[in-house]
């Protein structure tokens, strides 16, 4: 169809009060059909993609609609260059951590800002049903984010929910079901037959070190007699303790008295996932509507970990008058579940099931056995009895049983959400639009924990805790938008004002002394130990403006500014401005390329701007505070809690970006190349102050530092084959990142925190560790480079090996920088194939370079384990003079040096993960129409299908800073399901 060309504008859809428009045809003198312009959602509005000068990535619903994900955060992994994801845990309903374009801060949040349907969202991502989302847009540079001002330093993710469309009503139903398994394999560990001789060897070698006059025979005898009674406490074989290991050899006649020695099997098995979705949408010429209900139930592979969510949503948009449009949406969410132990915060806790099933020696059974018959013991109710651990070594959690405690303890959550949005849009004239958006969210999180009275921290009385947290956010903005075209000159001007209010209410109670069984309500406990509450308030106000200009979609300019005031800071410094300038040249629009068949898109763009970060841990950073509750009987007491710097203010990000977008062969090949640099100034650090000042923790938070992140981003998308019956698409993205601290003021030269040291000229993720040298081939001693202070001293623990001064004493080891957790390259690649009704998609994520400090592995490499598990790598230990190995001799006298934190435990962070895949078949619509169906699709989908790392058991993507913890590793989920439309 040919058109008499004039500027015609059609509203394609209206989402969250943001008008997304598309031109049907461009002004031209040639009568031909034109493609509808692509538009994307941006801050407080929408824009034609070809005129954008900012850096953003849009991901549409069809790219994640069929995946078995509980949180939209999971869909961010691999979605865009420059976006790094720390994988979520295996806890059902968990969400990953996200960093956009590097490390935005050291002491406060590095997470992006989330905006849902035009207003800020601070709730859990798991509360948003992924099937209700139409798209999300990742804004990465200042030109894209500056209108969000003091909260936009770490990027912005705009989530747009689904709306109804004019025309025939649509009814859709989908369901899927599948299984949940562990995706990261366990570290390989020695078995029960290998274990006893290894510990015997450590005792024997230690005896010869501590008592040099001992003969080999005497040391052997000592090790044999001490192995069970003195160290391991338990002998699971049917031979006498003093005959179990003789001269380093396990008694060949030894047979196991029982074999139920696996601590992981009772706790970790196969979970189950099911999901149901139902939505109904449609609309008339004046009103559109979308309503949905959803149900998700997922049980994790760890027992007593699950997530259940009910969602219901209604969205209505109505063109009430030709000049007035109104809309509203409301979502109700109810979720509940059993929480597993948080491995990061409880890394070494006795109730951490990931730690104690991994590090428990292979000689201990979790169950009680008859000392004569060796049979399992059962109580009067027929329940199997557990071993409380009185007969275990020092490294085997004596007196505890993580399986029994996991079964008896409780940690339950019930969460209720209301997420509501409303807008009004008044068309004053063809060019001027006034609109207002209101968002109100309320979240009530209720959590109950129970500590059993039989074994563990709460024994013998039992304990109960109750948490109630209510969060309310209210956002109200008013927008004036003016769009005008003068010939080939296009202007858009936005003026806005926004109020934001956040209220946090916390109530906590803790009681001990359970009265009757099977009741964990507080009324069933005798002694109130803690009862406390608090209310926090946070307010923010902003005024903002943006001007976009383009000349015939060729020469592009954009500028924005926002003035923000934050209640986190004192009135003298709480207001500041954030701004951006951007420009672009759409070279494709020039006459010499307009008719090019090879080049279908070519745009050069750049921007510079400043955005902020006010999301500190405290809502009152400028106020010195006191802690209540330190009472002496009836006498009230308070304690100095926090010393504030009244001049403290937000961190500022100065961001620059330059990029080129390209497309060839009618966009069969498209992509972009970008370079960015973001400089964070006024970094908030904890500055040490003298102990004599009497200040808690001996520090004060101040704006004292500067650092930068910079890198390149590459994105490529190509239709290798594209015809009526068959398409094959490949896509990939890659990113680099360089982070460096450039200033630490106020006399600070370094800040050491765990395995890292922050100093000028280094990244905040650079390792600062003792320098491991290796193993002395002469005697198997662990060796470290000697610190300069001891290099010229003479002592028995300092020696020269291969011309290098080293020490066997870790206390004299040299500290130095030892690489970084930041990779050289990270990203994703994938493919999608369609053949007639068949469709297949797959995505891989990867990382090259960087190092991980594998403390989990270190715990399995002790040179003297007293009941703890051992890696199979311990079999490569030094045993013979002249032997070349990287595993020191087993030795109960020198093991503290062997096991010390050092560069020994660093390993490559390289990985590749088969992140997700989906295979589907859509039945022919002509056939379905005879059955009254509009569509029917069956599918199989999987998440976290496979990974390759430098060491079996390693999970290098679990933390941005490169450390590991005993945590719930991610789950592999494979589901089968169908979608039907009427």
Please work out how many helical segments DSSP would assign. 9
Uncertain segments: 1-34
3D shape: globular
Proportion in β-strands: over 45%
CA distance, first residue to last residue:
30 Å
Q: How big is the Rg?
A: 32 Å
Helix content: under 10%
Mean pLDDT, to the nearest integer, reads 92
Q: Report the count of strand segments.
A: 48
Main sheet attributes: strand count, strand direction, barrel closure? 22 strands, antiparallel, barrel
Kindly name the structural category. mainly beta
Which oligomeric state applies? single chain
Structural summary, described in words:
The protein is 7% helix and 48% strand. The protein has 9 helices and 48 strands. A hairpin with a 4-residue loop joins strand 29 and strand 30. The longest helix has 19 residues, at 192-210. The protein is globular and about 100 Å long. The two termini are 30 Å apart. Residues 1-34 have low confidence and may be disordered.
Entry keywords:
transmembrane beta strand, 48 strands, membrane, disordered N terminus, Beta-barrel_TonB, globular, 982 residues, mainly beta, 48% strand
How would you summarize this macromolecular structure in one to three sentences?
The chain is mainly beta and 982 residues long.
